[in-house]
Design brief:
CATH architecture of the largest domain: 3-Layer(aba) Sandwich
Low-confidence stretches: none
GO molecular function, one term: NAD binding
InterPro entries: D-isomer_DH_CS, D-isomer_DH_NAD-bd, NAD(P)-bd_dom_sf
CATH superfamily of the largest domain: NAD(P)-binding Rossmann-like Domain
CATH class of the largest domain: Alpha Beta
Distance between the termini: 34 Å
Mean pLDDT: 97
Strand order of the largest sheet: 8-7-6-9-10-11-12
Number of strands: 12
Oligomer: single chain
Strand content: 5-15%
Number of domains: 2
Radius of gyration: 22 Å
Keywords: NAD, Oxidoreductase
CATH topology of the largest domain: Rossmann fold
Protein name: Phosphoglycerate dehydrogenase
Order of helices and strands: EHEHEHEHEHHEHEEHEHEHEEH
Largest sheet: 7 strands, parallel
């Protein structure tokens, strides 16, 4: 029986490819970095696309045609994957949120199995959420402005201990966020999907999104950590932003489309919201004309809060485990469900 062929389809360190080959020697690993995008920063899986000549282009086509499994999506023409990679049975993605991508490319209508990187980014994203809450609650923007002006003026700050936080989305990112917020003394309410049972250490209680309108008026901190689905698109609407208490802090590590961004800008400009820490936006890159860039009470992160310099090692560990499961006919971790959108 021919060996399973695994194609590395996005940038990866050579030593990690060697680890993969050593860990699962029964597969054939195709890795030709000259045919892959060039990362602009550590652990980027997009990067600058190479300008392949005719021979290189044909070589990439041949590699795709012979692949049973790929590490990440085809960078060149993902929408044509089913045609260009007729043997392909499974793609291990490098992102946790692939719903929008597979829908846009039509991949969710193919027979290919997709697994996400869910869990790999939980710690850095939860740390970003905690950083945003502390930065804004402790008045760090004020301190930076005072420092820039060389102005020494004593002031009073606030504490996060005892504040009510609502964390929307209780996957690995949301659960880790709950744990960190609870550890610094916030009273945390977790919000999950209707009809699901959740075990969330650190949550004072857990409700469903059906009860979101009941908990938001008391939420001094809101963290969005949901996947983007039909149900979560526009979840934090203008009416819900208006329902938040004055001075509330918003953190978004979900997707930009989960929030009514125009309403968010209005609430920040008016002072209704105390601040926002945003890793995602309705349009990315964030347009230079966006008012969010110039707001002192806003942290703008270029959709990078999830990326650690050690991310690729964690992704390869996940891939190795899933590859062993795949070869053994066992269920894969983080299998994407097109009906749920994650």
């Amino acid at each position: 029986m021919p060996a399973t062929t695994v194609l590395i389809a996005s940038p990866l360190e050579a030593e990690l490819v060697d680890r993969l080959r050593s860990a699962v020697p029964e597969v054939e690993v195709a890795f030709e970095p000259d045919l892959l995008p060039v990362p602009r920063y550590p652990c980027e899986h997009g990067g600058t696309k190479p300008d392949l000549d005719a021979a290189q282009s044909q070589r990439w086509s041949d590699l795709l045609a012979g692949a049973d499994v790929t590490f990440d999506f085809d960078w060149r023409d993902p929408a044509a994957t089913a045609t260009n990679a007729p043997r392909l049975r499974w793609v291990q993605a490098t992102s946790a949120g692939i719903g929008g991508f597979v829908a846009r490319t039509g991949l969710d209508r193919t027979d290919i199995t997709f697994t996400t990187a869910a869990g790999v980014h939980a710690v850095p994203l939860a740390e970003f959420a905690l950083t945003g809450v502390l930065d804004l609650a402790k008045g760090v923007p004020h301190l930076r402005a005072q420092q820039a002006a060389h102005r020494w003026e004593r002031y009073a700050t606030t504490s996060v201990r005892g504040r009510r936080a609502v964390v929307v989305g209780l996957g690995s990112i949301g659960r880790e966020t709950v744990r960190l917020l609870d550890a610094v003394g916030l009273d945390v309410v977790g919000v999950g999907r209707p009809g699901r049972t959740y075990d969330v250490p650190g949550a004072a209680r857990v409700v469903s999104t059906d009860e979101l309108d009941e908990v938001l008026p008391g939420a001094e901190v809101v963290v969005l950590a949901t996947p983007l689905t039909e149900e979560t698109n526009g979840l934090l609407s203008r009416a819900r932003i208006d329902a938040l208490p004055a001075g509330a802090i918003l953190v978004n590590v979900a997707r930009g489309q989960v929030v009514d961004e125009a309403a968010l800008v209005d609430a920040l400009a008016s002072g209704h919201l105390g601040g926002a820490a945003l890793d995602v936006f309705e349009v990315e890159p964030l347009p230079a004309s966006s008012p969010l860039w110039d707001m002192a009470n806003v942290i703008v992160s270029p959709h990078s809060a999830s990326t650690l310099v050690s991310e690729n090692a964690a992704l390869v560990d996940l891939f190795i485990d899933n590859l062993r499961r795949f070869l053994g006919g066992r269920p894969l971790r983080n299998t994407y469900d097109a009906t749920r959108g994650y």
